[in-house]
Amino acid sequence: MQHFSYSSLSLLVENPVLFKIKYINRDVIDTTQGASGILGTAFHKSMDAYYGGNDEYPIINDADALRAGLEVGLRYLDDIPDGFINYSTTLHSKEILKEKFAFLFNSYLTEQAKKNEKEEIVDLEGEYNTSVTVTWEGKEITLPVPMKGYLDKIVRRNGKLWIVDYKTAYSFSNEDKIDGKKILQMAIYYFLATAILGEEIYGFEFQEVKYSKSKDGKQVQVYPFIYKDNNLMFDFFFRYYEDATKAIMGEQVFLPNFSAMFDSEVALISYIHRLDVSEEVAKQMKEEQVSTITGLLNKKIESSKNLALLQKTMERVTKDYKTMNYEAMTIEDRVRYKLMEYGIILNYVDKVVGGNVTQYRFNPGTGTKMKSILSAQKDIEQVLGKSGVYIEAPIQNSSMVGFNVPNETRTYYELGNAKNGYEFKIGVQIDGTTFTRDLRELPHMLISGATGAGKSVFIDTLIKQTLALPVSKRLLYIMDPKHVELFHFAHEQGVSYHSEKGDIANKLLELTKIMDSRYKELRAKKTRNIQSYNEAGGNMKTIYVYVDEFADLTSGETGSYIKQCIQMLAQKSRAVGIHLILATQRPSVKVIDGDIKANFPAKVGFRMAKEVDSQVLLDQGGAEQLLGKGDMLFSDETGIYRLQGFNI
Q: Of 271, 648, 233, 308, whose CA–CA distance to 458 is shortest?
């Protein structure tokens, strides 16, 4: 046996067979590692990098430290083959391990790192291996077997040295339980650090970090111990060290599994004072002048007045938050690190720079819920210092997630000359390409947006493109209850313009009759739709019906009649070439009910006042975050797209 360590002495009582193979025979058995242990190792490596950096990650500021800690821990997890990980119910995949690691890392920084800033770091992740000579109860003792340990951190607080040890766990340790393994670890680390540094260690602190979320939000628990107040710690160590040494030398010695039994003062005091050894019991009963072992135990407990100090835990403290220096980071790193605070792992891919927004694209970790990413929209805006961030989770026709971030300056695109065809320009995509749709295929469109958001300009661009079609192939009906919004199209060729509510109702009724008449013509020609009818020699024009301020038109008795006509046209008019484009300033469930939405698969949302308005129109939030002036969300059966509308 070359040395004793905290882990080897623990293994001796927990699994003597593996202890002999590993430490006596010096053989190596490759086995899978528990997922929780791997998670703990990743956290330890991240803390080493966070506080100390390395050649790859020099630490200059907080942003460097954060990047170093996160990336070192994640890289460690990436490099471990799945076959060497013994996954558990709660830690069942590599991606879950990454998410839990990010959560641990952020939890520790949030609750504990600020408190550590006043400390002077003396050593990080030091490997200590030495023979130890100590003075105990007036005697100088040289421990025959050298000791070895890996100490997470040694710091100086107010001139005194402290050993800090990180623990990661699903739940906090029981504060009322005497933990034999922790006692052994504290004693060994005390001897090692004192021997190597040549200065007495004042205290030991366990910093326990949970990877399960606490209801009260507390994720870090600290357990401090002052060495001079805890002589029982050393009493226990010397008894166990002596027994372990005898056992390894082949003597028949009882070695208790202290992980299981030291949960009360009775077991601890009994072991320290050798009440498990008959000869010792008889001798001490005589010295203490008691007749029973119970009486002897009570005497020993009375003399061990510092036992309560051994169980002492730190007082409750208020959280002290560490502010991450996001300003020093790139936008993609701000997004990544902010989401890591919630255990969401994203891997940056690239960015697409558009005229109005730049889309930062990421690959999400396996098992990441899109709902979790979408819910972080406000946090992303806060860390970027920008409003109007729209999250696509996922990006259409892709497995990636996109964060559309407004540019400092915007580009406004001109419609130019309208095409003489049925493919209408809707807007410009983030990558600068023009997004088009055939209005005949939609077949109807619903438009909504607040004042000044770009709704009226968008309708103008659609009408202008409609007018570019040959008069022989199209008719336009424009319903303009405000009298002024669309009046400039009133005298265009092939346009039927109407602004009075009663007149609008009559024209919509007329359109329902035209619809019925056209169906009769189709039956007479034995054709199914307008396309096959015209191919058979007919001349049926496509009719586009633009209805502005739909909500105003649906009020009152006449409004109910108008809504009924719109409903009939929306349900049946596609086959005979009648297409509706409805616009309203603010959507509501009374105006845009289920029947209307079901028959208007194409929807355009401009900036809206509230998220609920976006939900009514698009069945999701997002329109309330748009920038205005033509910034839109276009939705049809293929997905939802963020576009910039045209100017005319």
A: 648
